[in-house]
Amino acid sequence: MVSSPLVAAPVAAYDAALQPGNQSWTGTLGLAFQVNAPITVLSLGVFDSNGDGIAGTILAGIFDTGTTLQVTPTLAFTGAADTLINGNRFRDLGVPVVLPAGTYMIAAQGFGASDLNGNTRCTTFVGGGCVNANPFLPPALNNGGGLITFLGPNRYSLEGSGFVLPGLDLGDPAVNGLLAGTFRFEVVGQQVPEPSTGLLLVSGLLVAGLLRRGAGRIAAVQESGKTS
Known about the structure:
The chain folds into two domains: 2-191, Jelly Rolls (Sandwich), CATH 2.60.120.820; 195-227. It is globular, with a radius of gyration of 27 Å. The strands form five sheets. Strands 7-6-10-4-13-14 form a six-stranded antiparallel β-sheet, with no helix packed on it. Strands 2-16-5-9-8 form a five-stranded antiparallel β-sheet, with no helix packed on it. A two-stranded antiparallel ribbon has the order 1-17. A hairpin with a 2-residue loop joins strand 8 and strand 9 (88-99). The two termini are 50 Å apart. With 228 residues, the protein is mainly beta. The model is unreliable at 196-208 and 217-228 (pLDDT under 50). It has one helix at 197-227, and strands at 2-5, 11-12, 14-15, 29-35, 39-47, 54-64, 75-79, 83-85, 88-99, 102-109, 118-119, 140-141, 148-156, 168-169, 178-179, 181-187, 191-194.
């Protein structure tokens, strides 16, 4: 027996619905998660308010919160060329990145008046870049069957600080209180057994031999009946 990889359908960790944003925060926004078993990150994504394209430039990347190092390339989203899935635009990394067990943060920066992000706190008060009190649908969470644990609170950095690992507490216990960055991933290393070519050949020969032996016995019984 040999093994071949089990192909898993990509899963969006933070799956935003198509909707308008409600905040124009230009600092970096981050959503934290824990990887319980290795995952392969295939693409990064950013929230696209109303799904009408990115007017400016929004950056996205994943940081290791234990080392504070960025573990994926930074992708820059602009326009409408990247794939829109529900409320997020995604782009493949080119070379997938395997994340071992640990704690990480998907960060996005570059939202503003023309590219609103989403923030649960903006549904209850106006301030801190909140532009209105739009109804807010938090992103659906997909943990890949327990491969990921989503962590709170969400984080942010001050405006003007550039694309950095955000370290300020948003003040909201929700683990999905932001529409900002996201990523798509699949399971690493799961395999299913399949028969080898040699085993299939041997099995075929055995079946053929049994069929010939059975046919011979039937012929012998028929011949015996003719002479009795």
